[in-house]
## 1
Amino acid sequence: MSTTSSRLLEAGRRPGRGEVRRRQILDAAVRIIGTGGLSSLTHRAVADAAGVPLGSTTYYFKDRDDLLRQTMAYAVEIERARMDEIVGAVSGPPSLEGSVRLLTEIFLDKSVADPLYDLALFEMFLEATRNDEYRPQTREWSALIGEIVDQVLPPTDPTIPRPVALQIVAALIDGLMLESASNQELTVEELADHLRIALERLVVADA
Amino acid sequence: MSTTSSRLLEAGRRPGRGEVRRRQILDAAVRIIGTGGLSSLTHRAVADAAGVPLGSTTYYFKDRDDLLRQTMAYAVEIERARMDEIVGAVSGPPSLEGSVRLLTEIFLDKSVADPLYDLALFEMFLEATRNDEYRPQTREWSALIGEIVDQVLPPTDPTIPRPVALQIVAALIDGLMLESASNQELTVEELADHLRIALERLVVADA
DNA sequence: TCAGTTCTTGTACGAACGTACACGTTTCCC
DNA sequence: GGGAAACGTGTACGTTCGTACAAGAACTGA
């Protein structure tokens, strides 16, 4: 009850040994949700996809809610790493065209980004609508999008507060992602054009 | 095999007698999905919510896929009627402020519109991402939003094609709906402000 | 080395599910 | 009035699920 290990367990995070396997299961869980929706997230399906026996998933995640909650957090963490990598490679001040290109690459271009993670996160978004338990993870996901947009977007129209402009752009991106997911006929170029048209009218004109 | 009734059955629509009960079940199905998500759509849950025995749901819907497909179509139909009613009551030419007010009332104001239907439709949207079988219904839903926006929106910036402007506004509304569903702290006024700021920059300035 | 912990796995049980189906009731048409 | 079609309902079967649990293997620290 007072050993190191039990304290770590109480803190909610396991010590290092099984971390690889834990992430292996979480990665499979994201793929399951992205492919088949929340209703297909079962211990057995995840275990099969991860190549581990059923007992493993119930060992690392005490019940289905726990699995779902940790899967959400994991997906956000992975997406944050992916986005930071893309944004971090950029040099020079933000420009309109540069921000369109980056936001497209990050959110809209399915040939670059694996849409499974985004689809899975949309599922979790809806689940959080019904169950407050998942609210922290959706909060973090919303905040992440806001941060990325903030870093990428040039100075915005001074007549509107910057946070408001960011929220508008974030909402637009959400909507475009949803449309692009459900309407395969929309090309990446069209989506980028839509984004550009909107951004042109929200950022200050550069000389 | 050649009677009137069997022909109607083959056409996919039942004759009139059981229509009331059929809609009673569909209405319950929408509420179930909006409340608990797609995974809670079971014959038993729907039967309970509709106040009918289990046998009734399996009589009107030959399997779960059929129930889901018809529920989607029903939800779109109900939403179309609701929106047409609101839009039809408007007189005079569209104005910026009028369109903001109408679109807010139709899509964003939860105290006016029952968000259960919209949440259910979002669920179906994601399901259609994975299963082509439900694509026609999502197409109709997208088209409906486009039509409503088209009817309500004043002349748009002539430098961009009207369909593009409509798609941008539709995507923005989708995103705002999603944010408002998952983030309770956003007030209707804030959402309307966001919409107004975007529309101000997409429609022609009126004298 | 060796006890304690962490990890791993197979199995089993009760609950909930989709679905089939038999059978009774109402309505319709001639 | 009577046969046919449509409507309505209760029950039962096989499957899949979450979860518990026992029991062994691998690792760790003293």
Note: Residues 3, 5-6, 14-15, 17-18, 21, 52-56, 59-60 of chain A lie near DNA strand C (CB under 10 Å from a C1').
## 2
Amino acid sequence: MNQLSCFVQSCNEAEGGDSAVSSTKPVADATPKTARGRRTRQNILDAAEKEFGERGFHEAAINRITESAGVAMGTFYVHFESKESIFRALVSHMGQLTRRWIAERVADAPDRLTAERLGLEAFIEFVRQHRDLYRIVNESQFVAPDAYHEYYSEFAKSYQRRLREAAAKGEISQGDDEQRAWSLIGISVFLGMRYGVWDDSRPASEVAKGAADFIEFGLKPEAR
Amino acid sequence: MNQLSCFVQSCNEAEGGDSAVSSTKPVADATPKTARGRRTRQNILDAAEKEFGERGFHEAAINRITESAGVAMGTFYVHFESKESIFRALVSHMGQLTRRWIAERVADAPDRLTAERLGLEAFIEFVRQHRDLYRIVNESQFVAPDAYHEYYSEFAKSYQRRLREAAAKGEISQGDDEQRAWSLIGISVFLGMRYGVWDDSRPASEVAKGAADFIEFGLKPEAR
DNA sequence: ACAAAACATGATAACTGGTTCATGTATCAA
DNA sequence: TTGATACATGAACCAGTTATCATGTTTTGT
């Protein structure tokens, strides 16, 4: 049920900025050294995902997380510096998970336009499978604005690059790729919300098909 | 500086659903009966807008709101039922303010495609002028999900209608107007965030122009 | 086997901030 | 003027939190 396996390697960058300060104090937020530690850390992470996803950052309670993880309060702070810190770890992990999932599903698309459709379909499916995590990312806008900013900037950057390449190959028109990247992200996010989170009755492929048509031809009449 | 004049008439719908229960207790959240009351209420509202906008819902403090409004803590609860209640009032007001602003700027567009461009330009300008209020709407997703849902559903509904009319007139192509409406909203919101909130160095008209091109022609090469 | 390091505990300190309420004061209708 | 209603006050209440720390237990390397 929980998709947070293979988390361990991805959590150090959270506090990465000023980590040159290697204090002699216990370094929370770092990968544990023993198997027991890793197990515990993972349990806390899983519990946190559930708690944050269900209640949101502010309503979420550390004591509920630790209880649900089957450890004592203090243990939380052995592994994480603070409530915000574990939240950031979750957000950062989400970015990777999402990108990886979409990348896989898009890998063998013959061209950019097909990739757009498959990518959107994959995204909607992903959202449906991870409503909680989707919420976490959205809420990071207020809890950890820089994490949120980075999350989408990362997306936009690679998006932009692929658009540029596709334009060079003539697969798509020329245009302002930065703007187009953000537009496409906006489309995904809102369709993901509308047809992924709020109402999952329409097949993802159908939504993706309709959107792909809009993305390809725009609103111009008689364009095809 | 503050755009919350003409607020009074719009705040009753917040608790409107089950208001048949006309208790004998002081009805907070209703329009005050005397001039003094209206003045005070407005002061609180203005202060709340600033406070919520700057700090976000959870960091915002009632005592700072009342202090900034020049009234005592208790006075807040004479006029509003709770912290969440005033927040909802603000969100609902934002919807009207935004729609009105855009509607004005789009009123005399000759066709739908032009309206799209002008509307986006107006929206970006609006966001730049009202960063605080924009933030309030976004955060409502977590504080008052139903208010958020209604906010965008309202937008989508009227958007959809206009697309349908435009398609009937042949100004734009046929398509799934619900999906297209949500896509267009997504574009606006993300461009608004990227070029309105995060970076306002590019002229709104330029952003709108680029986006309008994408909206009109899509990514298809050689379409024009 | 033994010390050192890593990990775990959980009661509680220390605090925050929304909401209440008993008690006023202003306003208005008659 | 007077009674009733509307509005205002702000100290105190209170529930709920995060984070700490002194003390244990497990694991690891030698």
Note: Chain B touches chain A through 47 residues (CB under 8 Å).
